[in-house]
Design goal:
- The structure is a single chain.
- By secondary structure, this protein is mainly β.
- It has two helices and 14 strands; from the N terminus they run E-E-E-E-E-E-E-E-E-E-E-E-H-H-E-E.
- The strands form five sheets. It has a five-stranded antiparallel β-sheet, with helices on one face. Strands 2-3-4 form a three-stranded antiparallel β-sheet, with no helix packed on it. A two-stranded antiparallel ribbon has the order 1-5.
- Strand 9 and strand 10 form a beta hairpin.
- The longest helix has 7 residues.
- The N and C termini lie far apart (about 55 Å).
């Protein structure tokens, strides 16, 4: 299908690569950035007539200084057994979820994240952490967000924390094994 994109360096939106003009073709456009001047400027790819089409986007960088030189986009036809790649899990994009059961990054267990989009090519969710970092997670490592997660995400935690609200431990550096543990809020001291 048709779509638009930017490239966020290290998952940071104010360090994005973008085209000179919104809607430019990746193969023929000047690469601008990384900087914060990209809002409203995205490369356009695909055709609305073909919803099953996938794309490989390549970024060529200068070997001397590492700067972005060129973006290319190649259509990858899909058919047969690959069609199941386009089945999304039950979760919807633009919702909050909670990260759980990570082994390599246990410090993220219990964190709320924003599900940006389903990446059918790798069958993973592209999510944004509250820090702004963007990562990919398997659906099995995401669960429904709690009421308190919405308040925390919006910076309104003190109004929402009250006895009985479901909570999850997160951000403990000295006791990583406790991150992701669930409970209910007791009394405020």
């Amino acid at each position: 299908g048709a779509g638009t994109f930017q490239i966020w360096c290290e998952g940071i939106k104010w360090r994005c690569l973008y085209p000179l003009a919104d809607g430019d073709d990746p193969g023929s456009s000047t690469v601008c950035g990384p900087d914060d001047q990209g809002p409203g400027k995205r490369w356009a790819i695909g055709s609305p007539d073909n919803e099953r089409e996938r794309y490989e986007i390549c970024l060529a960088v200068d070997p001397q200084d590492g700067s972005a030189r060129r973006i290319s986009c190649t259509s990858i036809p899909v058919g047969g057994d690959e069609a199941e790649d386009f089945i999304e899990p039950d979760r919807k994009a633009s919702t909050l979820a909670r990260i759980h059961s990570l082994v390599r990054s246990p410090d993220l267990n219990g964190e709320a994240c924003f599900c940006e989009a389903w990446d059918a090519s790798v069958r993973m969710w592209r999510v944004q952490l509250r820090s702004g970092e963007v990562r990919l997670f398997q659906p099995s490592n995401l669960e429904e967000a709690y009421e308190s997660d919405y308040a925390w995400w919006n910076g309104d935690m003190q109004r929402q924390l009250r006895p009985g609200v479901r909570v999850c431990v997160r951000g403990l550096a000295g006791m990583l094994h406790v991150n992701g543990e669930r409970g209910r809020c007791g009394d405020w001291d």
